[in-house]
Amino acid sequence: MTEEEEIIVEEEELLVPLDDYLSNGVHVGLKYKTSDMREFIYKIRPDKLCVFDVRKINDRIKIAAGFISRYNPEDILLVSNRVYGKRCIKKFAQYTGAKAITKRFVSGTLTNPNIETYSEPRLIIVTDPSADKQAIEEASIVGIPVVAICDTNTRIKNIDLVIPSNNKGKNSLALIYWILTREVLKNKGEKFDAPLEEFISQAEAQPYLLEMQERQRQQRLKRRRKIRRKK
Q: Quick one: the chain helix, strand, coil %, rounded to 5?
């Protein structure tokens, strides 16, 4: 039985076809999960990767789009320290009129009026709470609500609205932001016909991710050697 056959969802309930969610890996989480994200997890695969419930992803995108639509575009600030999210938030900002920080988030941006990057948004949207922790902390200090794309390893402290999703893959992030852009504009009675491809990052794999994968591989090899010695 394929993953698509296992995930039974009524197509008419979805914002995009089920295959779009699956082929872009939106539903594929990590091996690690927090208790905060447990309610969004559909199952755990044999390889220990968590799988999100597509219906809950879809529902949260709808809720988030409705929530975001209540704000004036100039009062919305998007943040992404994750490389694959930078193009996504830039495009969201381009089409909706929101603001986006595609470079490093400078400490004090939301709390220190004496610095050049100081900003006073009424809503923050972040791509990955672990990478965008500083923005979330500052938003909580000044009372700005936070919408966040959260993977299975996320702790949701100071996050007001969770969008459960794979927030590591460039295709997954592109699809989430593309749908959000379309739905926000639809709620405002505006047209949106940009292709999904426009939102997909052209960046290469991040060096630190490659380094982390290599470290994990070396650690696995060490564990195997220890097991062999014990035998």
A: 45, 10, 40
Domains parsed from the chain with CATH numbers: 3-230 (3.40.50.10490)
Question: Would you state the torsion angle of the CA atoms of residues 29, 155, 102, 196, taken in this order, to the nearest 10 degrees?
Answer: 30
Mean pLDDT, rounded, of the chain: 90
Give the CA distances from residue 44 to residues 40, 68, 72, 83, 93, in Å, rounded to whole numbers and listed in that order. 12, 31, 40, 27, 35
Running DSSP on this structure, what letter comes out for residue 71? S
Q: Which residue stretches of 97-169 are H helix?
A: 133-142
Beta partners for residue 43, in sequence order: 51
- Provide the whole-model pTM: 0.84
Token pair for residue 89?
């938030």
Does pLDDT of 131 surpass 70?
yes
Strand order in the sheet with 76-79: 99-101, 76-79, 123-126, 146-150, 161-164
pLDDT of residue 37: 96
User: Torsion angle of alpha carbons 114, 119, 120, 126, nearest 10°?
Assistant: -140
Q: Are the CB atoms for 151 and 167 separated by under 8 Å?
A: yes
Band (154; pLDDT cuts 50, 70, 90): very high
Contact residues for 54 (Cβ-Cβ < 8 A; gap 6+) = 7, 9, 14, 18, 21, 22, 26, 27, 42
